[in-house]
Amino acid sequence: MTNIAIFASGSGSNAENIADYFSENSDIRICLIVSNKADAFVHERAKKLGIPSLTYPKSEFEEGTRVLEILREYGINFIVLAGFLLKIPGSLIEAYPRKIVNIHPALLPKYGGKGMYGEHVHKAVVAAGEKESGITIHYVNEHYDEGQVIFQAKCDVSPTDTPENVAQKVHELEYRHFPEAIEKTILSAQK
Ligand code: GAR
């Protein structure tokens, strides 16, 4: 049995999509949603989905102990970052080796690193006149957006696209590919 915790800082549309995808799965369950923001919309989604959601301040994530305790309490053995904006502490990475994955809304190694999240990424992509963008799903290590890549998918960016257009295309890729990439990563680790 794989018990997943999803970490999310904002709207949580990916969290909801992932929870829907696994709702009928008896081997992989979304057991917990963790956020660093008490007013994040992901909590509303969690309520609707019947999944417990908790908030911890930045300091608790940096320190790691309390978060690790709660993950153990819930029997969590896999962590998905879906729009989670804080750095994951070394203690969590050590406790969950190759068991934490993140989605980034661009084609890493481009447009990654500290401060590169959500709309900032799409604005930078448009400002640079890129012809394509996409998504990167990767393992999480101590450095922002630098863990081993698991999966990438691309979309076109046209000269008339705004950052909002690009965000929409990228979200579509995320909804289509992220749940399946999570499932494949979990299944291949069990082989
Ligand atoms: C997603 O596009 C995700 O790729 C991005 O935040 C968005 C969250 O949307 N993550 C990052 O930028 C991480 N660096 P959601 O809350 O609706 O799922």
Account of the 3D structure:
- By secondary structure, the protein is an alpha/beta fold.
- The protein folds into two domains: 1-97, Rossmann fold (3-Layer(aba) Sandwich), CATH 3.40.50; 106-135 and 153-191, no CATH class.
- The protein has seven helices and seven strands; from the N terminus they run E-H-E-H-E-H-H-E-H-E-H-E-E-H.
- The chain has helices at residues 13-21, 42-49, 58-63, 65-73, 90-95, 118-127, 163-190; strands at residues 2-7, 28-35, 53-55, 78-81, 100-104, 132-139, 149-156.
- A seven-stranded mixed beta sheet has the order 3-2-1-4-5-6-7, covered by helices on one side.
- Helix 1 (13-21) packs parallel to helix 2, helix 1 packs parallel to helix 7 (163-190) and helix 6 crosses helix 7.
- The chain is globular.
- The two termini are 14 Å apart.
- It binds glycinamide ribonucleotide.
- Glycinamide ribonucleotide binds next to helix 1, strand 5, helix 6 and helix 7.
CATH class of the largest domain: Alpha Beta
Small molecules bound: glycinamide ribonucleotide
CATH superfamily of the largest domain: Formyl transferase, N-terminal domain
- Low-confidence spans: none
Question: Strand order within the widest sheet?
Answer: 3-2-1-4-5-6-7
CATH architecture tag of the largest domain: 3-Layer(aba) Sandwich
- Helix percentage: 25-40%
Q: Tell me the Rg in angstroms.
A: 16 Å
- On the 0-100 scale, what is the average pLDDT? 96
Structural class: alpha/beta
Following the backbone from N to C, one meets helices and strands in this order, namely EHEHEHHEHEHEEH
The major pleated sheet works out as: 7 strands, mixed
Q: What shape does the CA trace take?
A: globular
Distance between the termini: 14 Å
Total number of strands = 7
Q: What is the helix tally?
A: 7
How many structural domains can be distinguished in the coordinates?
2
The CATH topology of the largest domain, please? Rossmann fold
- Strand fraction equals 15-25%
